Amino acid sequence: MALYLSICAVRDNENEMAELSKEDKLLVKKLVTKFNKLGAVLDSEKHARLVSIGAQINSRVEKFCHNNRTDIVQMLFHRSELNGLPHTFFKDRRTRRVGRRGTLKYIVTTSILDFIPVVKLATSEETRKQMYTAYIGRSPENMQLLQETVLLRLKAARILGYENYSEWVLQDTMAKSPDAVIAFLADLEQHVGGLTQIDSDGLIALKMQEMDVNSKPYQGFYDWDKAYYTNKMTRIKYGVDSEVVRTYLPLRHVLERVLAIYETMLGLRLVYNKGKTGDVWHPDVDMYEVWEAHDMDIFVGYVYLDLYFRNGKPTGSGSTFHIRQGFEATKPGELHNYPAAAVLVDLPNPANDPAALLSVGQVKTLVHELGHAFHIMCSKTKWSMLQGTSGVEQDFVEVPALIMERLFTQPSVFRQLTFNYKTGALMPDDLVQKLCDYEQQDGMSYKELLLMARYDLAIHSTRDGKVNCSRLYQQMSNCPAGLCDAAVVDHLMDSYSSMYYSYLWSSAYATRMLGTRFLAEEECTGSRVGAEYRREILQPGGTCEAQESLNRFLKISN
Prior knowledge:
Elements: H1 2-11, H2 14-19, H3 22-37, H4 44-70, E1 74-77, H5 87-90, E2 95-98, E3 103-109, H6 112-121, H7 125-136, H8 142-159, H9 165-170, H10 178-213, H11 223-237, H12 242-246, H13 251-266, E4 268-272, E5 286-292, E6 295-308, E7 319-324, E8 340-347, H14 360-378, H15 399-408, H16 411-417, H17 429-439, H18 443-460, H19 469-477, H20 502-518, H21 527-538, H22 546-554
Helix pairs in contact: 1-3, 4-8, 6-7, 6-11, 10-11, 10-18, 13-14, 14-15, 14-21, 15-20, 21-22
């Protein structure tokens, strides 16, 4: 309390505030907001209740996310039930003989490396259904944990004087309020609704046609059909075979080229730090030193790459976090803390499969998470609280990651990542173009993000607590009874709760940045626009409002 009162005293003293730098003033503002959000002004009885509720929430969040990491279900499939999967899927796969006749079956798990190819490629709807059902239902207590957490968050928000949890969360974001988010999502749906409906209708028609050809009755289009028929549609409409594409995306080559493009664009040099096994938490983790390219005497920070799948690893689909937040020395002799960032994704391990072929989705995930890591590296602030991804408004955090996704799916950039693992050839230009055209017209992705953003806001905006999380999701998604995708979405529970919309919010800004600035350059990942992007978007961190950074980069007058 004494610290809070001291900070408030500075804020309320015009003379003291006038002497502070812009960054210092922002720090004071953010500290006051943070203390207020944590209940600094509450009396002792209310504060004790808030602390107790916070502990209950944290235990449920931890359990929810732990379940998603560790609850792996094993399934057995006959080879005929896995028709459509490539031969590489069966290489070195464990098997088991079952029944009196000792029928050979393959062991398939709900790990992400098994789940995605099965729901995407298996021709048997029953196999896809079993796989999807096991994956979504692998943590049966999670929906109850979400339900309890939503109600506890409402209680905490009420103690703090807010109508609901979303109002508490959103006050210091770019959006500021739930009403602004609702309006944004409604406006976005108006603009992309036609695209999502066309894609949805096309997939349903494709399944109906397939059922008719196979003399089977059409009984509906389900969540376990989406990936399979989306993949089929890309082959028909765009002439893109995802398995052919993978042959051009061996992990080692892709990683080398992705890092090289980041280096050129941001004016950095990465040095692989060999033999420092004591500095990493697992033998698979690689550590890179980051230096300024123009002066190798200027050290920037460390990036740790934990790229390969292993059971229990905390990734979700991918994540990046500070190991250490940085801050700059403002005077000679002052301490300079160098940032360290960790990138965690689930990619195939070349130690098990030398080719380690990637899907386009996996490439995008890698690029996305590195976008966060280099935001952390390039941010230069006096105060660690304002540094990198931790300093900016939460609904701005995804902008640097999403703009890099869009840049890397431009044909001139994506082609640089390709290298056929057998022949060494680059991907043909026509295939690159078709692939990138598809990536830029994926209406179903918008539809799924809109659904989850609306659901997230709905459960966390309840004012009376009369919300049934399972029933509401089924009503909004039309998913079959007993199945709920929300059970495996960590972001509904972690720091993105009430903030799932931020992917779409950031995506809108990334799209504008791409068209206005990057594609206007002769080389969209060149050092000229890259230097400005680094200076105006990455470097400030939380030393200015995110909108101010965007306006400078987009050259918009205030």
